[in-house]
Write a structure and sequence with these properties.
226 residues, alpha+beta, 2 domains, two-stranded antiparallel sheet, 10 helices
């Protein structure tokens, strides 16, 4: 499929199959991307500190010709082709050649941001699911804690939600209570009624909701509890 991206570890360059020569042009292009720095770095060359920025690396045409199994002329022609396609840029001195991958972030950071995959994650999709689950749990917590009935439910039943299922349970309880247009006084009244009728061990939120109508309701006068 033409869309999407994959996470390719630099260790692939150590694989015997990867090292088979001569390289194809596509393999040589991927090899350049794999060699590039993923962040700014500084190294010592002779008596001079060299800054190598993200998306760059230092090498020589002679070194690449050996590692790719190409002639020097073929390496030179290949770089001219890449430069013509605005895929790389070069700076050469008598000591080194600096290669800069054009739009390096397109091959690395943009894909990682879209998929929310970290480079060091062995199972990227699992990491994404874990991150999304945490975000969803936080969103659920925030929305439920702002519900008017939340504090009443926590206080009466001494609930201590810790897991996603705990929060889902509380969400369902609040939803069912809202369908019954319950207010805190309605809940307290029925809790006392179910304890009086069947004992404290039977007083769960689900039991109160199940027997809601048969437990009766507090008398109201002028909108207040009598």
């Amino acid at each position: 499929m033409p869309n999407g991206w994959i996470s390719l570890h630099r260790k692939i360059r150590e694989n015997p199959i990867w090292k088979e020569k001569p390289f194809s042009r596509g393999q040589a292009w991927i090899d350049l991307i794999l060699r590039a720095n993923h962040k700014d770095n500084q190294f010592l060359l002779g008596n001079e500190f060299i800054l190598c920025k993200k998306g760059q690396f230092y090498t020589s045409e002679s070194k690449l010709s050996i590692e790719w199994g190409w002639s020097r002329k073929k390496v030179a022609r290949f770089f001219k082709c890449l430069e013509g396609g605005l895929m790389v840029s070069r700076k050469c001195t008598n000591k080194w050649t600096r290669i800069t991958i054009t739009n390096y972030s397109t091959y690395q950071e943009m894909g990682a941001a879209k998929e929310q995959v970290r480079h060091r994650s062995g199972t990227g999709e699992a990491q994404v699911r874990h991150t999304n689950n945490n975000d969803n749990k936080k969103n659920t917590m925030y929305s439920l804690e702002n519900e008017p009935l939340f504090k009443e439910i926590i206080k009466i039943w001494k609930l201590k939600p810790a897991t996603k299922s705990d929060w889902s349970r509380i969400g369902k309880i609040i939803k069912d209570l809202k369908l019954k247009k319950a207010v805190p006084e309605d809940i307290s009244f029925r809790v006392k009624a179910i304890i009086s009728k069947w004992g404290p061990k039977t007083c769960t939120p689900e039991a109160v909701l199940k027997h809601w109508d048969e437990l009766g309701q507090p008398e109201r006068k002028m909108g207040l509890i009598a």
